[in-house]
Amino acid sequence: MPKFAERMQGAQRSFIREILKVTADPSVISFAGGLPNPESFPVAAIAAAAQAVLAESGAAALQYSTTEGYLPLRQWIAARYKTKKGMDVDPGDILITTGSQQALDLAAKVLINAGDPVVIEKPGYLGAIQAFSLFRPAWRSVPLLDDGPDLDALDAALAGAQLFYAVTSFQNPSGLSYSEDKRAAVAALLRRHDCFFLEDDPYGELRFAGRDLPPVYAQRPENSLLLGTFSKIAAPGFRLGWIVAQGEIMERLVIAKQAADLHTGSLDQMLVERFLRDNDFEAHVERIRTLYGGQCRAMQASIARHFPKDVHVTAPEGGMFLWATLPDGLSSLKLLKLAVEQKVAFVPGAAFHVDGSGDKTLRLNYSNADEATIEEGIRRLARCMETCRSAGGRAEAEMQHGCQD
Amino acid sequence: MPKFAERMQGAQRSFIREILKVTADPSVISFAGGLPNPESFPVAAIAAAAQAVLAESGAAALQYSTTEGYLPLRQWIAARYKTKKGMDVDPGDILITTGSQQALDLAAKVLINAGDPVVIEKPGYLGAIQAFSLFRPAWRSVPLLDDGPDLDALDAALAGAQLFYAVTSFQNPSGLSYSEDKRAAVAALLRRHDCFFLEDDPYGELRFAGRDLPPVYAQRPENSLLLGTFSKIAAPGFRLGWIVAQGEIMERLVIAKQAADLHTGSLDQMLVERFLRDNDFEAHVERIRTLYGGQCRAMQASIARHFPKDVHVTAPEGGMFLWATLPDGLSSLKLLKLAVEQKVAFVPGAAFHVDGSGDKTLRLNYSNADEATIEEGIRRLARCMETCRSAGGRAEAEMQHGCQD
Q: Is this structure's pTM higher than 0.90?
């Protein structure tokens, strides 16, 4: 058999997607996914938009369209940046992508040579690790603190780096956000080091506490790319995301996009634009914020009731995830084995680390379960932690089923 | 400014897409595109399918879904291969892609290292040239004769090659198809040379003359990939294509697909599956065949009436394209300049050649214009050919506007 391309060596299926297969069993309470709550999907409004678009512009909605994307949709995005973040974005500097996962692939194609130093947060977003890894970067990771990256570590990592990738608001997996001061400091570091900057902002609209902050991109647009998506504010099934970038970067992204899939679905773009135009978007997104804020507080309350006190958990102001750090001696991978037996699932933190560390950490998603389910799942998980901790203290002769390899 | 990735050096926007911008002027008769005729789009049936899917399965249609694709759609494709081509394809060996352009990108990611010899037909499909070129192959090209590739040239080109890419039925750009004998001979060569084989079949359903033939893939599935698309039999605006491949190849394609865009649009997949299930597909596709057969014959008749007799034009049995070869001394690039002034457009053949040749050739699309428009466009184009020919005979002092650079 002929050999596959070298970039596929060591490439693996997403660990999360493999866990999700286990959790297809409806008796398993899953905090493993990253799914928006389907309660938030505007199904009837989408159906109405589909009828309107197909009745009024059926041929255009079903035909090939431009690589750059549907102009009225790009204009909506630009206007939203103005209203929401006070940013002036030219619709011509927006490229519609097939979900923001494609934006990561296109950025990697345009920016990363094999061996290029690429900086990512620790923990970092798994989808970016996967997309970039196919282009074989030399990974560097920078610890993420409660208010953003460790600046000394970032300064050191940026020396000679090609690209810094960051999720600056309600990060996946940690739920953490960059403070206003950290945003300014990161922009200053980036200006000094002159490397590409890719700011991923899938959750920016989902703030349920604290005060809105503009992306770092607003302070350092040159050599930078800003990513957004409709997955969390309309629905992920459309696969609609976007990249904001200027000049030569955008020129090359368009070339890469042509080669990748010609353009993003015409009907999907027109349908979402119509949905946004015909409905009260602000009220819609406020319902999602209220929903997720309630679910987050429910999970935090359950955790306060049930988790061992030496488990540290982040306190997000938005988004979809909590991040837990276990006390010494506990492994999230071993915990998962027992947890799945006990019908509760999460994602072990090692998946979000490019340096092999992270085994004491885990990601908990709260957006896709109601409060009663959250309480029951957290209770089960807390019991598993206690079981693993006591198993860890025992002699090997008394090996406990589940927590050991 | 930091440097872009080396793979972007020399990468250019699609020449065709740039021509299409010129032809946005409605007074230009364009044979340049590769657009299906919007008359063939089942707009009302798609609208009905959208209502049914959103009413019955709204949450699933708007949620994230599996990377491999919607199983009922993959089952439909497998059943169609059985009915139409007598092939046994396991739905598990089908990956839904975001158009078949994405299939080309995924295949290139999985199969091509920089410098790997990759064999393509001469002329060859521009979308594949673009997708593969980003992965920097060493191109080899094999002349395409009226019944398929030159077998001696193919035998020589396959020695040590990593991949052979071919469009075996109603090829883009030439309209040519592999005969039954050539299919068997190509399969035998591929078995002997043991390289990957990527068979692209976007037009296979669009046969309006002659007898259906199974793809080469049916005779040599090992180390092979077969591509298909709904763009020409439902609508391109959905961006729905697929790859048939087995075992380790499929395993790696799924990994690459996860990194590329997680999965193809859920609503698009469910909507097209519903359209196929609720309607008479055979009757639908027969209408498209009849439409394109009539348009092809109309263009052939216009060409017979108007073109200079020493312009050679292919005689396709299906698909969307005719391919013309100009007599010595004429350049299609120079012809295009004059043609655009005279409000008619086509794609110069050089775009479909990886070796810099092809300047005497050009591609004519007949699927997206009615018979009267075809007649007028071909008449204009014939006049441009005569003008260029007489200009070519003159002294430089009498330079004719248009045909010269």
A: yes
